[in-house]
Design brief:
14 helices, elongated, 9-stranded mixed beta sheet, Rossmann fold
């Protein structure tokens, strides 16, 4: 309170006293006790009013004690009961949170974690994933700018997320409490199995398996992969105390089209504590994408042989060479390559107008360009009878499909008739032409799409020299063959667009997120945000059906089907406004990653403690942990003096007292006949 405020308050006392004296003593006819009481009331009222007018600021000091946070995090994953440590984990938690000394020193924060971290004081140990990395990430943001200890009650067996050892802030000590039996048991385990989700029919697909052994003796195990009752592969594997891992690489045949489910297993004559981790199911979607490419030519030319070799470098491609008069049906042809078409090709063009097969037109010095102008409208040719050599120029802005510049600028020129070529409509140019390094602004390799039909144009012969030059530049035909394969892939792909597009996997592992995404397009192929999508999911074995609504996201609708049991499922997605539907199927493979462990990961948890200058404890050392936390002098409570400044006019009680004084004075005067 300032000096001026104090002087004003003293002046207020004088004024209030003077007015009271004048009212009830100087003017009064008698000096009764009533006048004395009334003078006191008047003095208090006037003084209160003057104090409110002065409105001094009153400062209140409060002492606040801030305790150091102590995060106690409990592993809520299903691996805890698998290791028979669920009861012990709860006992450890209760010992910590109920300890009076810890409660006095720390602000105890209780959390649980499985796939994510969340506050909790109750634990059911049903989590399907273990992510210790989530603890580091979330606690850092919760207790920002604070040095605090963390106690993690866990087995340390992480199943998802980044390696947690170096994810915790080194300035915040971590005290892992290791639960689970640390005794070394005999255990064989399929630690990891890598396989592509898709394979091509009649090819072989690679499988990479990582095996792990825990034990103290030399042993031999049998590893096998079966499909149904058939053994696909089998190998013997040896382990010892010094050789505890093994890697197996196999090539399995893709003999059947569709979803193929396999079971990998490892076994021995020794009985194991946990045999669940000896088996791992996996699945591969085998696709039949064999496509037939017909090269039609009325002449013999080295380009044809080079093109055939490039296309057939992909085992899924088959090339047939035919004359113009030898094709009656295009039913089995995926791509039609028309090499230097002339009037002899009229029947093929007429047949293809009905079939709608995508075409690759290659021109040269023997091409009838007047006939070609009549059969297509994407390019307009005005050619002379003079021959010309055309170099190429790569157009980096080309975006129909991903393509790298494989050294096109070094390729020899192609030969074509001299003239002008202009584009008409939606034509994308990958290579433009040059004559003696002078750009013609005309296409050399171009692609067009018209009413769902795709066409590619290569304007020049002698492309066989390109393939040879690519081999000279790269000591391999691979880059050029991939370039040709991308052209064929573009032409072989279907261009039809569906109004309802659904994205899903053919199979999922138990415990994984089972997400199905869908997009619905209106007649202009614009994403329809007002669509109403539902999905019906039926278990193929039990015939039990569940219905869900798909929720709208940024640019798609999605549904999460987590919680479904292992098995085969059929589903149907339906748009309710138009009754458009999509049907599909998927399979959930029986796999619980939390059942893969027989021991806690002691080594990693000790590394975590060491990295943060903490200390690891075992499940029977709760007393030592409590003692360590209490004796650590880094964690002290912080006392803060909080000064609160409040204007006196905000005191509601002062206003109530003022009203009470005025009311009392009025009643006393009324009672004594002084009004």
């Amino acid at each position: 309170m300032t000096t001026n405020t104090i002087l004003l308050l003293l002046l207020s006392l004088v004024i209030a006293g003077a007015l009271s004296y004048f009212q009830y003593f100087h003017k009064a006819k008698s000096n009764s006790k009533v006048n004395l009481f009334l003078a006191f009331l008047r003095f208090s009222t006037i003084f209160a009013i003057l104090v409110l007018l002065i409105n001094p600021i009153v400062t209140k000091n409060t002492l606040e004690v801030t305790k150091t946070p102590l995060a106690i995090v409990v592993d809520n994953s299903s691996s805890i009961p698998v290791l028979k440590s669920d009861k012990k984990t709860i006992e450890l938690y209760q010992d910590l949170v109920s300890n009076p000394a810890l409660q006095e020193k720390f602000e105890i924060q209780s959390y649980q974690f499985d796939a994510d971290l969340k506050p909790s004081k109750q634990f059911d140990f049903k989590g399907k994933q273990t992510n210790l990395d989530a603890i580091a990430k979330n606690l850092k943001s919760i207790n920002r700018n604070t040095i605090f200890p963390t106690v993690i009650i866990t087995d340390g067996n992480q199943t998802t997320g980044n390696d947690y050892v170096y994810r915790f802030d080194p300035i915040n000590k971590v005290y892992p409490v290791i639960v689970g039996d640390t005794t070394t048991f005999f255990d064989l385990k399929i630690n990891q199995l890598n396989v592509n989700k898709y394979a091509f029919h009649k090819n072989k697909f690679p499988v990479e398996v990582f095996l792990q052994y825990s034990g103290t003796k030399n042993t031999t195990a049998d590893f096998s992969i079966v499909q149904g009752s058939s053994v696909i592969a089998k190998e013997k594997v040896s382990f010892s105390p010094s050789k505890k891992t093994a890697t197996i690489n196999l090539l399995l045949p893709a003999d059947k089209v569709g979803l193929q489910v396999f079971k990998a297993s490892i076994s021995s004559n020794v009985k194991e504590k946990n045999s669940y981790n000896n088996i791992k199911n996996f699945a591969v979607e085998v696709m039949d994408q064999k496509s037939t490419i017909a090269i039609v030519s009325a002449i013999n030319h080295p380009d044809i042989a080079a093109l055939k070799r490039s296309i057939e470098s992909n085992a899924q491609r088959k090339v047939i060479l035919v004359r113009p008069n030898e094709i009656n049906s295009l039913q089995d042809v995926s791509v039609l390559v028309l090499y230097q078409p002339t009037t002899a090709f009229k029947a093929i063009f007429d047949t293809n107008k009905l079939a709608g097969t995508n075409t690759f037109i290659i021109t040269g010095t023997n091409t009838d360009f007047n006939f070609l102008n009549q059969q297509q409208s994407n390019l307009v040719f005005k050619m002379s009878g003079q021959k010309e050599d055309y170099l190429n120029e790569f157009q980096s802005q080309f975006n129909l499909f991903a393509i790298d510049n494989i050294g096109f600028e070094n390729f020899p020129p192609l030969q074509n008739l001299f003239g002008t070529v202009t584009t008409n409509g939606n034509v994308s140019v990958l290579l433009s032409s040059k004559i003696r390094n002078v750009s013609t602004n005309a296409p050399l390799l171009a692609f067009a799409e018209n009413q769902g039909k795709r066409t590619a144009y290569l304007l020049g012969e002698n492309s066989w020299k390109w393939r040879l030059q690519s081999h000279v530049d790269h000591q391999s035909f691979e880059k050029y063959d991939v370039f040709i394969d991308k052209i064929v892939q573009f032409l072989a792909s279907s261009t039809s667009r569906k109004s309802l597009v659904v994205t899903h996997e053919s199979f999922y592992n138990s415990g994984e997120a089972i997400a199905i995404n869908a997009q619905y397009f209106n007649k202009n192929y614009e994403f329809d945000e007002k669509a109403r999508l539902t999905i019906s999911v039926t278990n193929a074995a039990t015939k039990q059906t569940k219905n869900y609504d798909l929720l709208k996201g940024n640019n798609s609708f999605s549904v999460n089907l987590d919680g479904l049991t292992a098995g085969k499922y059929n589903f149907s997605v339906k748009e309710l406004n138009t009754n458009t539907n999509y049907s599909g199927h998927f399979e959930i493979l029986d796999f619980d990653i939390e059942k893969q462990f027989v021991n806690p990961d002691v080594l990693k948890l000790k590394q975590l403690a060491l990295q943060t200058n903490g200390k690891a404890f075992f499940e029977d050392q709760s007393a030592e942990l409590i003692k360590t936390l209490l004796e650590n002098k880094e964690y002290k409570s912080i006392e803060k003096n909080i000064a609160t400044k409040t204007p006196l006019i905000d005191w509601i009680w002062l206003l109530i007292i003022l009203v009470a004084l005025l009311t009392t004075e009025w009643f006393v005067r009324k009672y004594n006949g002084l009004l």
